[in-house]
């Protein structure tokens, strides 16, 4: 069971972080145009 | 005024990297893995996610608003946002963070010492790591020496200004910390039995999900680790662009902090479970015990352990330094608001850190007392921001300051600041009750500090002294704090 919960937890942590960075990058790209 | 006084971040990424540096500190590397593992593992993560949204992100948003709208440091921003009568409240918040800056450089000094131990071959098989730590921590000269080295490093960075100092340093240190932690996390997985640590860290046990202590520890960790309510994010937002996003940058900072802490967890806990004869003794041994005794001992037993030790202590140094410079910058901004130039202000704050930090560098009981008093004091700082936000109007702040420049439009994430006083009462009450139970019948005493290191008395007396001093200095502080940053873009 723990490999499943580990995958979900780490996906939330790193997925959340990457989503924030990606959203910020898209916003900056939009402001640049 | 110096030429640096109106300097701003060169781009959004300058601010984001600096904010990550502010949040990612030693607490991510040596506290999060230990506290997460001993408080439910997977259940702790659930509580921690809640704490990010209920505690950290709303407070970071409030700080962002204070800094960007007022264009002044912590003291001036409270005056500008809430009126002259609130100046002393800003001074109290600023003092709590500065009091932490005084002793936090001591921690960097310890990490530098251990990095040098690893680099010079002291960490080798058969080493008595406890004796090594005891001999170091009980040597005031060594403590003072490495504290001064750490302080000079921080002063050097801050004195170079926003773009050449803080921005450049963080753009180097933050990727370096992540690279080192990724390396350590991967290396740890190749140790025999490392999976036992992963199983322990990531299993969700229902009894822990239902346990109140899991949430109390997770909220405390989030409060201390993300830097929410310290005034540091506020200070960095003084230098932000006019149209800088507040909500997304707050969320990014909180998640970056959690990502770094999780990487540290992936390194520390599997290493302990793979090598240590008594893993639970190691994770329950406190921050210093874990890093400087148990992990140091394990590094001497692992093939290529010296490389791991070098990477681990280098990551700790950079994590601590990137936080220390944000605290010194908080002080520098206060003096800049009073018309001081950057270099003069940096050396003045550096001198204050030297004088007020030396006792912590030389005597560990004083360090532990200050860590207790001002660490818990940070919860109070958070409360002051939330009360301030509610006084101005939560909806008004959203409509006027956050929403217009926000790249994500989730009002509820900001609105949760209204619930902050509830979490404050619970968490602060829990720490108070714990402290009373540690000193039955003597919880109100505070002198000698070496005996009453963690009492409620020592906490309250030191807070009250600071609050009374700033209350009486209110008008003087308000009159002195007049130089706003003039944002060019």
Just name the CATH architecture of chain B. Answer: Up-down Bundle
Hey, which two chains have the biggest interface? A-B, 18 and 25 residues
Helical residues, percent of chain B: over 70%
Query: Which parts of chain A are unreliable, with pLDDT below 50 for 5 consecutive residues or more?
Result: none
- Estimate what percentage of residues of chain B fall within beta strands: under 5%
What is the helix/strand order of chain B?
Answer: HHHHHHHHHHHHHHHHHHHHHHH
The tally of beta strands of chain A, per DSSP, is 0
**Topology, number of strands of chain B:** 0
Number of helices of chain B: 23
Q: Helices and strands of chain B: which structural class?
A: mainly alpha
CATH class of chain B: Mainly Alpha
Average pLDDT, all residues of chain A? 94
Annotated CATH topology of chain B: Amino acid/polyamine transporter I
Query: What helical percentage do the residues of chain A reach?
Result: over 70%
What kind of sheet is the major sheet of chain A? none
Rg of chain B over CA atoms, rounded to whole Å, is 22 Å
How widely separated are the two ends of chain A? 47 Å
- Assembly type of the chains comes to heterodimer
Tell me the CATH superfamily of chain B: Amino acid/polyamine transporter I
């Amino acid at each position: 069971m723990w490999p499943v919960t580990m995958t979900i937890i780490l996906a939330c942590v790193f997925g959340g972080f990457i989503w924030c960075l990606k959203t910020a990058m898209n916003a900056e790209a939009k402001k640049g145009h | 005024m110096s030429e640096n006084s109106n300097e701003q971040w060169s781009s959004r990424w300058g601010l984001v990297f600096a904010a990550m540096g502010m949040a990612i500190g030693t607490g991510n590397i040596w506290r999060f893995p230990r506290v997460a593992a001993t408080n439910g593992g997977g259940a702790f993560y659930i509580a921690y996610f809640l704490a990010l949204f209920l505690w950290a992100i709303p407070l970071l948003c409030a700080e962002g608003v204070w800094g960007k709208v007022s264009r002044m440091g912590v003291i001036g921003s409270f005056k500008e946002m809430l009126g002259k009568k609130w100046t002393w409240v800003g001074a109290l918040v600023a003092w709590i963070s500065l009091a932490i800056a005084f002793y936090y450089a001591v921690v960097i000094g310890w990490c530098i010492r251990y990095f040098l131990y690893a680099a010079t071959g002291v960490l080798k098989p058969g080493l008595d790591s406890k004796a090594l730590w005891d001999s170091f921590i009980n040597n005031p000269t060594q403590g003072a020496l490495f504290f001064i080295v750490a302080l000079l490093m921080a002063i050097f960075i801050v004195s170079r200004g926003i773009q050449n100092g803080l921005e450049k340093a963080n753009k180097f240190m933050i990727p370096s910390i992540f690279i080192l932690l990724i390396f350590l996390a991967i290396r740890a997985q190749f140790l025999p039995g490392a999976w036992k640590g992963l199983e322990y860290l990531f299993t969700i046990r229902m009894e822990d999900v239902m346990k109140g202590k899991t949430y109390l520890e997770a909220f405390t960790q989030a409060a201390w680790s993300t830097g929410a309510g310290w005034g540091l994010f506020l200070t960095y937002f003084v230098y932000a662009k006019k149209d800088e996003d507040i909500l997304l940058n707050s969320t990014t900072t909180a998640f970056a902090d959690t990502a770094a802490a999780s990487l540290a967890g992936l390194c520390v806990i599997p290493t302990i479970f793979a090598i240590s004869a008594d893993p639970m003794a190691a994770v329950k041994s406190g921050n210093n015990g874990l890093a400087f005794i148990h992990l140091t001992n394990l590094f001497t037993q692992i093939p290529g352990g010296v490389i791991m030790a070098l990477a681990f202590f280098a990551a700790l140094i950079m994590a601590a330094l990137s936080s220390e410079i944000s605290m010194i910058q908080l002080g520098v901004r206060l003096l800049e608001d009073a018309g001081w130039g950057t270099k003069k202000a940096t050396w003045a704050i550096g001198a204050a850190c030297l004088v007020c930090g030396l006792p912590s560098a030389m005597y560990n009981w004083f360090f532990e007392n200050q860590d207790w008093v001002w660490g818990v004091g940070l919860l109070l700082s958070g409360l002051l921001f939330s009360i301030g936000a509610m006084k101005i109007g939560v909806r008004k702040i959203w409509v006027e300051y956050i929403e217009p420049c926000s790249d994500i439009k989730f009002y509820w994430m900001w609105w949760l600041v209204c619930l902050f006083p509830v979490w404050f009462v619970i968490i602060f009450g829990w720490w108070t009750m714990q402290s009373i139970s540690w000193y039955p019948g003597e919880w109100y005493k505070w002198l000698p500090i070496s005996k009453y290191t963690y009492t409620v008395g020592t906490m309250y007396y030191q807070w009250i002294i600071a609050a009374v001093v700033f209350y009486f200095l209110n008008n003087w502080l308000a009159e002195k704090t007049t130089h706003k940053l003039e944002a060019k873009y």
